[in-house]
Design goal:
The chain is α/β, with parallel strands linked by helices. The chain has a single domain (11-215), classed as Rossmann fold (3-Layer(aba) Sandwich), CATH 3.40.50. Helices cover 31% and strands 15% of the residues. The protein has nine helices and eight strands. Strand 1, helix 1 and strand 2 form a beta-alpha-beta unit. It is globular and about 45 Å long. The protein starts with 10 loop residues before the first strand and ends in a 7-residue tail after the last helix.
């Protein structure tokens, strides 16, 4: 595809504008997307970030970001899932960047005993959305520095997982666009393979190395 020509939808909504959300938004703006940023404290607290991101970014409420996004990135602590605007996200692809940190989130039995995953909890909360895992096993700072062109030898790879092929394909295409190879782990039930403390978590790996790390991952209760 010629430089500057993109095939994606126009606007990404962000619910959560912390380190990961801000980094993904930077990458998106750099590749021609519009972004609508929100957080739990209100649009007026995002002035500095919006100024940095430039004219393709604006601040909004979480509801407005959900409504404006052709697809939406949810990048909030687990406790905030309960406040998500379910109806506004209906029918949309929702990318879940979250990880379970019991020290922050409190103990959640089905995550402790590994009978469920973070993204499955989000999918349950958003039954009419298409949830896909994304950006949960890369340090925020690396999102804007480690990307390289398609075909670069030893290109860094990132994983996704989804029960929706459409959602997985969108995440994989976005990864490629902003500089990363993508590996589809499979359904949301398999997204534990890139969760915290697993071999694929927050390590620099190419696609073959990522697949090897996914394959050797064992499911053990926390």
């Amino acid at each position: 595809m010629p430089p500057g020509v993109t095939s994606h939808m126009t606007t990404i909504g962000f619910i959560g504008s912390g380190f990961i959300g801000s980094a993904v938004a930077r990458a998106a703006v750099d590749h021609g997307y519009d972004v609508v940023m929100s957080n739990s404290r209100g649009p007026e607290t995002l002035t500095e970030l919006i100024a940095e991101l430039g004219s393709h970014a604006r601040a909004a409420t979480a509801l407005e970001a959900a409504e404006a996004g052709d697809w939406v990135v949810v990048t909030t602590p687990l406790s905030a899932i309960a406040t998500l605007p379910v109806e506004a996200l209906a029918g949309k692809i929702v990318v879940d960047t979250n990880n379970y940190y019991w020290e922050r989130d409190g103990r959640i039995a089905e995550l402790d005993d590994e009978t469920s995953t973070v993204s499955e909890l989000l999918q349950r909360k958003l039954p009419t959305s298409k949830v896909a895992k994304g950006f949960n096993h890369i340090a925020a700072a690396d999102i804007n520095t480690d990307g390289t062109p398609t075909g670069t030898p030893d290109r860094r790879a990132l994983a996704t997982a989804s029960d929706s092929q459409e959602a997985a394909d969108l995440v994989l295409a976005f990864y490629d666009e902003i500089g990363f190879d993508g590996v589809n782990v499979g359904p949301l039930a398999d997204s534990w393979r890139v969760q915290r403390d697993r071999p694929a978590y927050v390590t620099r790996q190419n696609a073959d190395e990522l697949r090897a790390n996914l394959a050797k991952t064992e499911r053990v209760a926390a």
